[in-house]
C-alpha cells in the first residue's frame, strides 16, 4: 500500500458570519472530500502541540516526525534547500531578497520594485569570493534567493541587516554571541553584502532598469541565518521512497532537506492560481514510482492571509473537484489535513487544531460524514499532535515495529 499526504496550508478556520457561521471548509461544496471522510476516520490535529501557533516550517517538520526543537534552526536552511542548493551539515544558510537603497544605504524599496527574478544576478552573486569560506548563491522565486557560507568557524548567531522598513538604513551585521565563529561569520557576511552592493550597483541589468525608470535592484538583504542540521532522510527514518509536489520554495525546501524527490509541475505556482489538475495528475504518476507522496497546496493559506474567506471556500471547491483523479486508485492510504489554521478574520496563523482524515487500506471508520472543523472534532481519531501522524501512517501500512514482546 502507498500513501498520499495532502496538506492544504492554513486549512483550519473559525466561524464566519457572512458564511452563516460556518468556516470556509464547512461552507464549501466538497462532495469528494466528504466521501473520503465518510469512508475513513477523522479527527483534529495540532501540528506542533496544543496551544502552539506554528509557522509553516516548524509545522511541516513536526508532521513528518522531525521535532522542530531539534531540527529547526531558522528559515535560512529551508529556503536555501528550496532554491536548489545541496546543503551540508554545518553550512550557514540565509534567505535573501533584492532591494533598492540610496547612496546612504537607506532602503527605498525592500523588493526592488517587485523585481520578477533574481536570475540575471545569480551568477555574479554566486561568484563573489570571501577568504576561507565557499559562497553559494541561488535565485529563488521573484525577488528572493538564498546564500550559503560553507567552511570552518561559522555560526548562525548573527544579526539581520534588514531594518524591515522603508526609509531606514541597512543595519550592520553583528555577532549575537561572544564567540570567534559568530564574529567571523558577521564579518564575512558584511563583506559579502558590501561586495554584492558594489557589483549590483554597476550591473548592466540595473543600468537598463534605471534607463526604463525602474528601481535598480542594488542591495541584497540577507536574513534568517540558520545552521544546517544533521538530518536523517525520510527514507532512512521510515523506509519509504518519498516524492514532494509543491509550488512554494519553503515546501520544496522541507522535501529536499528530508531527501525526498522534488517533482516540478508546470503551472504549480505556490499560489491560489495554481494548476490543481496538473498537480493531482503528477501525484498519480509519482505514485507509480514512490511509496509516499507529499502534495502541498498553498492557496488556502494565501487567501486566508488576505482575509478572503469566499476565495478560500471556492479554492477548497477547486481542490475537491481535482481529487477524483486519485480517489479511484487502489491500495492507497489518503491523508488530508492542514499544517495549521489560518482564520480568515485574523489573517494569520492560529493555534486552533486542523481537521484531518485518513481513508483507504484497513482504516477504521467512524460516524463522520463530512470533512470540516465541527464534524471532524467528533471523529474516531480524536485529537492528535503532528508528531503522531507518521506513526499512525506507519501502523496503517503494517510497518510498525512491535514495542515489547
Ligand atoms: Zn502553513
Describe it for me?
With 405 residues, this protein is α/β, with parallel strands linked by helices. It folds into two domains: 2-72 and 231-396, Alkaline Phosphatase, subunit A; 79-226, no CATH class. The chain has helices spanning 24-27, 31-39, 56-63, 68-71, 75-82, 119-126, 180-201, 204-211, 234-238, 249-257, 276-289, 299-305, 309-322, 324-327, 373-376, 389-396; strands at 2-8, 41-46, 92-101, 107-109, 134-139, 144-150, 219-227, 242-245, 261-263, 292-297, 332-337, 354-359, 382-385. The strands form two sheets. It has an eight-stranded mixed beta sheet, sandwiched between helices. Strands 3, 4, 5, 6 and 7 form a five-stranded antiparallel beta sheet that branches. Strand 3 and strand 4 form a beta hairpin. Helix 12 (299-305) packs antiparallel against helix 13. It is globular, with a radius of gyration of 22 Å. The structure holds zinc ion.
What is the element layout, followed by pairings?
Blueprint: E1 2-8, H1 24-27, H2 31-39, E2 41-46, H3 56-63, H4 68-71, H5 75-82, E3 92-101, E4 107-109, H6 119-126, E5 134-139, E6 144-150, H7 180-201, H8 204-211, E7 219-227, H9 234-238, E8 242-245, H10 249-257, E9 261-263, H11 276-289, E10 292-297, H12 299-305, H13 309-322, H14 324-327, E11 332-337, E12 354-359, H15 373-376, E13 382-385, H16 389-396
Parallel strand pairs: 1-10, 1-11, 2-13, 8-9, 8-10
Antiparallel strand pairs: 2-12, 3-4, 3-6, 3-7, 5-6, 11-12
Helix pairs in contact: 5-10, 12-13
Bound molecules: zinc ion.
Residues 9-10, 56, 301, 339-340 line the site of zinc ion.
Amino acid at each position: 500500500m502507498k500513501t498520499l499526504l495532502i496538506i492544504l496550508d492554513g486549512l483550519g478556520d473559525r466561524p464566519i458570519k457572512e458564511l452563516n457561521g460556518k468556516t470556509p471548509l464547512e461552507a464549501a461544496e466538497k462532495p469528494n472530500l466528504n466521501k473520503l471522510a465518510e469512508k475513513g476516520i477523522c479527527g483534529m490535529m495540532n501540528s506542533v502541540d496544543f496551544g502552539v501557533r506554528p509557522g509553516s516550517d516548524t509545522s511541516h517538520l513536526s508532521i513528518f516526525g522531525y521535532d522542530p526543537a531539534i531540527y529547526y534552526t531558522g528559515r535560512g536552511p529551508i529556503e536555501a534547500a528550496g532554491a536548489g542548493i545541496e546543503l551540508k551539515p554545518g553550512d550557514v544558510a540565509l534567505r535573501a531578497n533584492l532591494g533598492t537603497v540610496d547612496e546612504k544605504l537607506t532602503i527605498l524599496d525592500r523588493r526592488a520594485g517587485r523585481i520578477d527574478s533574481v536570475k540575471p544576478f545569480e551568477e555574479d552573486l554566486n561568484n563573489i569570493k570571501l577568504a576561507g569560506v565557499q559562497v553559494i548563491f541561488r535565485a529563488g522565486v521573484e525577488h528572493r534567493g538564498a546564500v550559503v557560507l560553507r567552511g570552518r568557524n561559522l555560526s548562525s548567531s548573527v544579526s539581520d541587516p534588514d531594518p524591515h522598513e522603508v526609509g531606514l538604513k541597512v543595519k550592520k551585521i553583528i555577532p549575537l554571541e561572544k564567540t570567534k565563529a559568530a564574529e567571523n561569520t558577521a564579518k564575512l557576511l558584511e563583506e559579502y553584502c558590501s561586495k554584492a552592493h558594489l557589483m549590483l550597483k554597476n550591473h548592466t541589468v540595473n543600468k537598463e532598469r534605471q534607463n526604463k525608470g525602474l528601481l535598480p535592484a542594488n542591495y541584497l538583504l540577507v536574513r534568517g541565518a540558520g545552521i544546517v542540521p544533521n538530518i536523517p532522510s525520510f527514507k532512512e527514518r521510515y523506509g519509504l521512497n518519498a516524492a514532494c509536489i509543491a509550488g512554494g520554495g519553503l515546501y520544496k525546501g522541507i522535501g529536499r532537506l528530508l531527501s525526498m524527490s522534488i517533482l516540478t509541475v508546470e503551472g504549480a505556482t505556490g499560489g491560489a492560481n495554481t494548476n490543481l489538475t496538473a498537480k493531482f495528475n503528477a501525484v498519480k504518476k509519482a505514485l507509480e514510482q514512490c511509496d509516499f507522496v507529499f502534495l502541498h497546496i498553498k492557496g488556502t493559506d494565501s487567501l486566508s492571509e488576505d482575509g478572503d474567506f469566499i476565495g478560500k471556500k471556492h479554492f477548497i471547491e477547486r481542490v475537491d473537484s481535482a481529487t477524483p483523479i486519485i480517489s479511484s486508485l487502489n491500495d492507497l492510504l489518503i491523508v488530508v489535513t492542514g499544517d495549521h489554521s489560518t482564520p480568515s478574520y485574523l489573517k494569520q496563523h492560529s493555534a486552533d487544531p486542523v481537521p484531518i482524515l485518513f481513508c483507504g487500506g484497513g482504516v477504521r471508520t467512524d460516524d463522520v460524514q463530512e470533512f470540516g472543523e465541527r464534524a471532524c472534532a467528533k471523529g474516531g481519531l480524536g485529537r492528535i499532535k503532528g508528531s503522531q501522524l507518521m506513526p499512525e501512517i506507519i501502523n496503517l501500512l503494517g510497518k510498525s515495529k512491535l514495542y515489547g514482546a
